[in-house]
Amino acid sequence: MTARFWQFAALLGALLGAGVSAYLAYVHYSGASLACPTSGHGCELVQSSRYAQVVGVPMGVVGLVGYAVMFVCTLLRGEAARVAAVAIAASGFLFSAYLAVMEYVVIDAFCGWCAISKLAITLCLIGAVMRLKAAQGLAGNDTSI
Amino acid sequence: MRARRDKTSPPPVGSTRGRSGSRFSARAKIRLFGGIAIVVLLGLIVGTRLGTGGDTSPIGGVDEIEQLFTGIPQEGVTLGDPNAPVTLIEYADLQCPHCKRWASSTLPVVVSDYVRTGKLKIVFRGLSFLGQESFMGLVAVQSAAEQNMLWPFVHALYAHQGDENSGWLSAELLDRIAASLELDLERWQADLMNDKVIARIDADEKRAADVGVEGTPSFELGPSDGALSLVAPRSTEPEATTALIDSVLAELAKR
């Protein structure tokens, strides 16, 4: 598959993640009730837990910023942007893994929105890595993607 | 004149430009962005830990809270003698300013005149329709109920109430209240994940929907051995609630 295909996959992941993050940020600031894709209080428990923030900034906002930067880096051309996209996706993926451990081990709850976000960052990582590899394979011919 | 370098010739020795004409080689870029990514990742993880509480410095007003509730039986979510002839159920959202007003102006009067004298018991039912911070607070107070300390915890939260979902109901505040009220912190923390606590929150929501609660504070009032009715005090001033309790006590006296 071409670098353009993997670029599209990473963009899709970034959009999906940004959408989930934007919704969680909206719920946090508006006080609207949290619609959870799974039954029970799992989403509420996780989102109201002490792990749903970074130095007081709600995780929805942190995610929105992260996915926006990921989207821009994926959209940009050049090797620097491709490497930056891999780095952002990798740190996002590892952070997501850390949150998953907190979610299942410490809070002992399952959050459907968090699961979608994990899926999104995984898609970003696969897309970004494969795009970099595909572009490097094309080096000398076409590295503009 | 300077000679123009042939585009096809290799870059001069010592040049930092890579194959794609960039100033840095691909390996250098990976090192640079990889390093930044590790720093960002560690920053994020440390950032979540910074907001995880641990501050157990005392909150203000604990003496007043202790004074209000000391000597009154508390069992789970119930305040007062379990055999009191009249029951008042309060439906409240911890972020609701009217609930705070009722708790600060009316509750002390009701406690001293009716609960302390054994005429009335009050049951707390928490709702979280105002947002995530309400839910976070509810879990905390229901965990305190496991140590029969729900009422002082609720009162302490009202004393620090801020604007809805503005971040006032934080892990730090909850930890400080729990420590100030001398709860068994380890047990309280463990009960935050207790299925029984979540089941009680679910049950309260269902009960509120069943009886037709549309806002907070709302109350059910009636004889403890009979049917309770949804009542609406005219205001958050003490007289509005005490008049309703008096009417139930008067009905009971006629029996």
Fold and architecture overview:
- In chain A, 73% of the residues lie in helices and 3% in strands.
- Chain A has helices spanning 3-30, 42-47, 59-75, 79-107, 112-137; strands at residues 53-54, 57-58.
- In chain A, strands 1-2 form a two-stranded antiparallel ribbon.
- The model of chain A has no long low-confidence stretch (mean pLDDT 88).
- With 255 residues, chain B is α+β, with helices and mostly antiparallel strands.
- Chain B contains ten helices and six strands, in the order ααβββααβαααααββα.
- Chain B has a six-stranded mixed sheet.
- In chain B, helix 2 packs antiparallel against helix 6, helix 5 packs across helix 8 (185-191) and helix 5 packs across helix 9 (195-211).
- Chain B is elongated and about 95 Å long.
- The A-B interface holds A 27-34, 41, 44-45, 47-51, 53-57, 62, 78-80, 83-84, 86-88, 90-91, 94-95, 98-99, 102, 106-109, 136, 139-140, 143 and B 19-20, 22, 24, 26, 29-30, 33-34, 36-38, 40-41, 44-45, 47-48, 50-53, 95, 128-133, 135-136, 139, 164-165, 167, 170-171, 193, 198, 201-202.
Kindly state the percentage of residues in helix of chain B. Answer: 40-55%
Strand order in the sheet with the most strands of chain B: 1-2-4-3-5-6
Into which percentage range does the β-strand content of chain A fall? under 5%
Cα distance spanning the termini of chain A = 13 Å
Radius of gyration of chain B: 29 Å
In which range does the helix fraction of chain A lie? over 70%
Number-wise, the strands of chain B total 6
Radius of gyration of chain A, rounded? 16 Å
SS-based class of chain B: alpha+beta
* Number of alpha- plus pi-helical segments of chain B: 10
Approximately what portion of the residues of chain B adopt beta-strand conformation? 5-15%
Q: How many strands, what sense, and barrel or not for the largest sheet of chain A? A: 2 strands, antiparallel
Q: What are the secondary-structure elements of chain B, in order, as H or E?
A: HHEEEHHEHHHHHEEH
Helix/strand/pairing class of chain A, anyone?
mainly alpha
Largest sheet of chain B: 6 strands, mixed
